Amino acid sequence: MKISIIGTGYVGLVSGTCFADLGHSVICLDKDKTKIKSLSQGESSIYEPGLDEILKRNIQNKRLSFTTSYKIACQTDLLILCIDTPAKKTGEPNLSNLKLSLKSISRDLKKDIFIVTKSTVPIGTNQYIKNFIENSSSFKINIISNPEFLKEGCAVQDFFFPSRIVIGCESKASREIMKELYAPLGLPSQKFIYMKVQSAELTKYASNSFLATKISFINKISQIADHANADIHEIKKGIGSDSRIGNEFLNAGLGYGGSCFPKDIKALINFEKKFKIDHSLFSVVEEINNQQFFIFYKKIIDAIGQKRLKRSSFMIWGLSFKPNTNDVRDSIALRLIRLLTDQVKHLYLYDPEAIRESHVYLSQYSNITYCKNAYEHMQSANALILCTEWPEFQNPEIKKLHSLKDKKIFDGRNVLNKEVILKAGIEYFGLGS
Ligand code: UDX
């Protein structure tokens, strides 16, 4: 099948590359010429395990190509929209990139077409897309909402082994073309969930906000555990082993970040306000996420002492919003760094993949040094702060941690072995543990 992907961010690039690997002929479009040039040479703009190899393989066998031209991209059976929809200040998703793209599509379209939306878009957007293109061209559009559930850091794995494929569509022809698109995955029919377009649009928001709620729930319990001298690891085991609850997304810590959860919760609150529905649940989810950040920050200030802060330096492990990605958008680590830089002597930062990306966001600060490895400059730091749970941080070389001047570790993701650290004579501060 011949398909075109509009937008080569995380979702577009991973989906396009993987669809090509399934045997489809794929053209990926982006307005960014530099990005398209390096992608055409097989250089990925993102760090995503497994992606580079599939990208190179499919460029070589000519199933995958890149363009900035809508004329070329519109010569297809199926257009898949993967355009970013960042949150405006009001929380409302910003659809201006999507609208610009629709203008170009209606200008260059030469036949009736199926348009699949993978971007997370407000309820009603697919209908808007259909009306917009049908009113500004002479062609008929079949709209399909096919939200993505790829997690950064394991997006390739999620693509080839999806938990489910949600398809919101309004015609038999749309169902058939989506079956054909996913057929090479060889999934059992129960994995395909067909529904109304509006239901599919809302399913994406509901899914992400449920997970964010689960995180805020366990974080609230961790706040109680801190005061009750209970251990959040034990509580997680205690509740997560109930199959109705499950133990995924029950890791207490610094809270959720990234380009999806914060934006999607804000969007849901915005819809509720628009529909004049009570918005207390998701507002509290957001508030707890914010509380966790300040509780952790206060633990650092209290342990070091406000007066000594100006003379203290910190080693920070982890800059990306979660492990196995170089994405620093809405990263809690960067938020903490921005808050601390003005108040401390120096910050030493290390991340296995996200140092280059962090430079862009932290360029205005002069008291920052980027480290070549996790232990470089450890002896210059008073304490260690862990913000992102990369696997290499989880079993640290205890001997090297001894060089911390104040012998204190703040574990923002609750992943270090508290017993081992305490035994080594180092103070440990977690969240609920
Ligand atoms: C999310 C959804 O999981 C995915 O289905 C959707 O398509 C896009 O949004 P992603 O943002 O890549 O994926 O990351 P995810 O693994 O969901 O983590 C989001 C945030 O929650 C991260 O900051 C992570 O650190 C945090 N988190 C996750 C926790 O704080 N605790 C947990 O138990 C799990």
Short descriptors:
eight-stranded mixed beta sheet; 18 helices; alpha/beta; binds uridine-5'-diphosphate-xylopyranose; globular; 433 residues; single chain
Describe the overall structure:
There is one protein chain. This protein is an alpha/beta fold. Helix content is 44%, strand content 14%. The strands form 2 sheets. It has an 8-stranded mixed beta sheet, sandwiched between helices. Helix 14 links the parallel strand 9 and strand 10. Helix 9 crosses helix 11. The longest helix is centred in the middle third of the chain and has 32 residues. It starts with a strand and ends with a strand. The model has no long low-confidence stretch (mean pLDDT 96). The structure holds uridine-5'-diphosphate-xylopyranose (UDX).
Spans with pLDDT under 50 lasting ≥5 residues?
none
Please state roughly what percent of the residues sit in beta strands, choosing from under 5%, 5-15%, 15-25%, 25-35%, 35-45% or over 45%: 5-15%
Shape: globular
Radius of gyration: 23 Å
Mean pLDDT, to the nearest integer, reads 96
Calculate the terminal CA-CA distance, rounded to whole Å. Answer: 52 Å
Q: Tell how many strands the DSSP assignment holds.
A: 14
Strand order of the largest sheet: 3-2-1-4-5-6-7-8
- Biggest beta sheet summary: 8 strands, mixed
Structural class comes to alpha/beta
Number of helices: 18
Unique ligands: uridine-5'-diphosphate-xylopyranose
Give the proportion of residues in helices: 40-55%
